[in-house]
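## retry 2 of 3
previous attempt timed out at serialization; input unchanged, resubmitting
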Amino acid sequence: MESTLQKEATLEQAIDLGLRADEFEMIKEILGRTPNFTETAVYSVMWSEHCSYKNSILWLKTLPKDGPHMLVKAGEENAGLVDIGDSLGCVFKIESHNHPSALEPYQGAATGVGGINRDIFTMGARPIAQLNSLRFGNIESARTKWLVKGVVKGIGDYGNAFGIPIVGGEVFFDESYNTNPLVNAFSAGIIDTKKTISATAKGPGNPVFIVGSATGKDGIAGAAFASKDITEDSADDLPSVQVGDPFMEKLLLEATMELADTDAIVGMQDMGAAGITCSTCEMSAAGKVGMEIDLDKVPTRQENMLPYEILLSESQERMLVVVQKGKESVVKEIFTKWDLHAEEIGHVTDTGRIRYYMNGELVGDVPAESLVLGGGAPQYKREYKEPAYYQEFKKFDINQVEKPSDLKEVGFKLLQMPNIASKRWVYEQYDSMVGTRNMTTNRPSDAGIVNIKGTNKALAMTVDCNSRYVNADPEVGTMIAVSEAARNIVCAGGNPSAITNCLNFGNPYNPESYWQFVGAIKGMSAACLKFETPVTGGNVSFYNQTSIGGKEIPVFPTPTIGMIGIVPDKEKIMTLDFKQKGDLIFLIGEYKEDISSSEYLASYQGIKASPAPYFDLEKEFQMHQAIKGLIANNLVNAVHDVADGGLYVTLVEMSLPRELGFDIVTDSEIREDAFLFGEGQGRVVVSLTEEMEETFLEYMVESGVNITLLGHVTKGKLQVDEEHFGFITEAKEIYDNALEKHLEN
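## retry succeeded, writing output
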């Protein structure tokens, strides 16, 4: 057999491809010989961090994966699947496209959207909504402005053309992301649970098809590229950035939905990271089978592509399909109808090995199990240690901060800050109306809400993470991220169901970066167990670094939480806007004299070193239960959580939609700046009519959750402790236009 294989690879070639010397020796041991170049390239992408999670899998296994609604657990399929009743399921997932977006923001972001949607419809679910979570560097930097504009346009152009609404998201700026932005894309779809398509190959003799677009040289070794630091030389890696075609993806979606209604399909998987290599190996390993693949039969866009180029290409809008033998014509007819390639490139075997042929020659022969996550791919236990800054941050004392003399000025300054100001400039580039499912376009809510047609239910979804909190304290900060996601679902009238995560961190070989990762996993586990929101899957993105002052530092650790929940009654979707003058305003939940890690402290006061804000998981949970009861019993008419910018920003955001205002009184025993701008967790603002007050108070006394009467809704005047803070029209002008002014300045 060896005579038919290509020339043996060298250690230098293996290292150039991203493998370590000891890993090259492991491959030799697995194969019983020295691999050739094609085989080495296959191992390099499959054993890359991006595909194998070799530096994270041992910790990922500790996350809670069981819950009351789980139908497909983490790692079993392309995406998580939860039961939403009425014989329907929700398939959802979040993934990163950080490194490609750092070099080519438009295509990097666009193909991130395309890839996450394919993960959804490859399982047989029709995508119905998207979210995104974006992180950029200093907004005054020309490069940041270029990245923001490219990423937002890429997301908008691809999502709008594909025809799936973007119903929410978040944007955050910090200089730690100067070099390396984060682009995390979330998609959710609805599926008839009896029609789920598995990513498993079965049945020796069953034909294997590649469907969709032709294969080109774009994206070659993209998985390996995503598993190393961004440097000044990374522009040389531009071939590792894929190019997307949303119109082709739309055709692929419709063909897949049609195929799902037949009995012709055995298994199917998206060709994302590592392309044909990944899908052939993972599908085979899942079914404990093998495949023989003829690379000559793969439709290509360029002539004379080499075997490793075809195998490692990450050209978009392609999928691998295992077809029931004898049903080949069904597949071909459907894909011909939609003007897409559907080429038979091989068949399933019972060998457990993947054999790749080209020009009649065997160019690769590898055991499938040796290449995949949880199989033969290496699993490392990395060293980690607490960084010195962690204890330094804990020394922060609020008394070191001088109280501002003009609180109105602070409030208006906060409304202009890019992390607080309206993201209108971003979301107006997205089509939120397409698909006729979005229920929050003109009804602002703490979570995106989409209609589950034919039922009385709706689906609530959100993405959340304050990475400044996580940097200050990874464990507490990540508990807060999960809690805020759950809080947003609850405030919108939903019940949290499950999460997906996108774990964005620095170099895993840096013990201090890895300490952040470990802390985040511990915090996520604790919060998910409390809220009964198991982890359905997600993505790990390491090697996110930025050069500041000539020194490489990791980005703020950013474990983005994507959460879905069920709104059991569409009639009880809750909005955040004040409804009418004279309504009472209450604060629900406990508050402390705390400004730690707030936007006020970091951006207005310029103090970066402080711990995570006040947080109590048990009290947070109790508060959620109280809010659920208030909404179910029609005791409130507006609900909005206190988050970035503190209570003042929450009140302004509730006032803006109807151009109302507020007249409130602060707590005389707490510093006014802490009461108004602190970001201590576990607090929600509600409004209600005077007629509701008595029943509301009775309910809250019984719940045992702390409440504070703040004041009442006004016709448009903003007033705090009898001091005039201006009018909502002034605040609206500042809040709505600040981000665009930053970007266009």
